[in-house]
Amino acid sequence: MKNVLINKICQFVVTENQLRSFWEKSGGELEFESLTNEQLMQLAKKEIEQASLRELEAHILDHGYRTRDEIEGKMIADDDSDPIYHIEVIDTSLSGTPSTIRIDRLVRLECKDCGFEMFVQDIDIDPSQLKCPSDGGQLVINNNGNTLKKLHREK
Q1: Separation CA 91–CA 82 (nearest Å)
Q2: Which has the closest alpha carbon to 14: 37, 54, 47?
Q3: Is the dihedral of CA 136, 140, 144, 149 positive or negative?
Q4: CB 139 within 8 A of CB 131
């Protein structure tokens, strides 16, 4: 059997009104307004995970109802702890800069001297602080293999 996997970036927007409705349907005990940013992110993740294909369509950015103006604003919280999801709370009443979504969580480092290559999970690493485990030489980030991909959302 030859299955084909297509990886595509898909951004889901869960508006405050959608979250409120989902919260009320799920029988939340607290007042919606009292939820923390962390609780809102977990609620949005739960809504996306439980949504049918038809319901997911209502959340896809630039598809149907969801537009870019719903994600323009200041990011006030984010959660990058799950390797599958990057979740942000954006306050559209505040101005801010677009965030960067990291798709892969590995950085390829290469030794300038011997060419040894290795991968690290810290995508914000400063390679000048590391030495090559093979010969002690200087390590640099090697993006030729496109192991670190970023999507810059533009306003």
Answers
A1: 22
A2: 47
A3: positive
A4: yes
- Report whether 77 contacts 99 (CB < 8 A): no
> Apex CA 96: angle with CA 94 and CA 98, to 5°?
135
Q: Do the beta carbons of residue 106 and residue 122 sit within 8 Å?
A: no
Q: Is the dihedral of CA 132, 136, 141, 145 positive or negative?
A: negative
Specify the 3-state DSSP secondary structure of 85: coil
Q: What is the pTM of this model?
A: 0.65
Q: Is residue 142 within 8 Å of 109, Cβ to Cβ?
A: yes
Burial 24-40 (b: 16+ CB within 10 A, else e): eeeeeeeebeebeeeeb
Whole-angstrom distance, CA of residue 60 vs CA of residue 41: 16
- Could you give the CA distance from residue 73 to residue 93 in angstroms, rounded to a whole number? 6
Count the helix, strand and coil residues of the chain and give each as a percent rounded to the nearest 5: 25, 25, 55
- Residue-wise pLDDT for 100-153, tens only, equals 555 566 788 899 999 998 888 777 788 888 999 999 999 998 866 444 444 444
CA-wise closest residue to 140 among 59, 118, 87:
118
